[in-house]
Amino acid sequence: MPTRNARSKSNRYDGLLVCRMEMLGLDADAARQSEPAAFEKISEACSSCSFREPCAVDLKRDPNNPIWETYCPSAGMLIDLAAGQSAAV
Questions:
Q1: Measured between alpha carbons, how far is 11 from 40 in angstroms, rounded to an integer?
Q2: 31-34 contacts: CB < 8 A, separation 24 or more?
Q3: Strand, coil or helix: what is 2?
Q4: How much is the pLDDT for 2?
Q5: Going by C-beta distance under 8 Å and a sequence separation of 6 or more, which residues neighbour residue 39?
Q6: Is 86 in a helix, a strand, or coil?
Q7: pLDDT digits (tens, 9 = 90+) for 27-60
Q8: Which of 49, 50, 55, 75 reaches 20 to 30 Å from 9, CA-CA?
Q9: Residues 82, 1: Cα–Cα separation, whole Å
Q10: Largest CA distance in the chain
Q11: Whole-angstrom Cα distance, residue 3 to residue 16?
Q12: Three-class SS of residue 65?
């Protein structure tokens, strides 16, 4: 049975992905529906990422700072999704 801390930690990191997506102008639900394979790959990478703490700090400190692109393994896919969603609008 998962502990309460493990559950809240998992939810926190899922929140990091949603927050990062929002900062890029991405609608997580729309991305999940339009690009399910890419969204699943990004979601899995985020949940097992070793850079979650720097990501959380960067989102809190200055969410518009592009430094996250240097360590995020999903940066390219997130940027591509954002470009695709903005082109569709």
A1: 16
A2: 31/81, 31/85, 34/84, 34/85, 34/88
A3: coil
A4: 43
A5: 28, 31, 32, 81
A6: helix
A7: 888 888 988 999 999 999 999 999 999 999 999 9
A8: 75
A9: 37
A10: 44
A11: 20
A12: coil
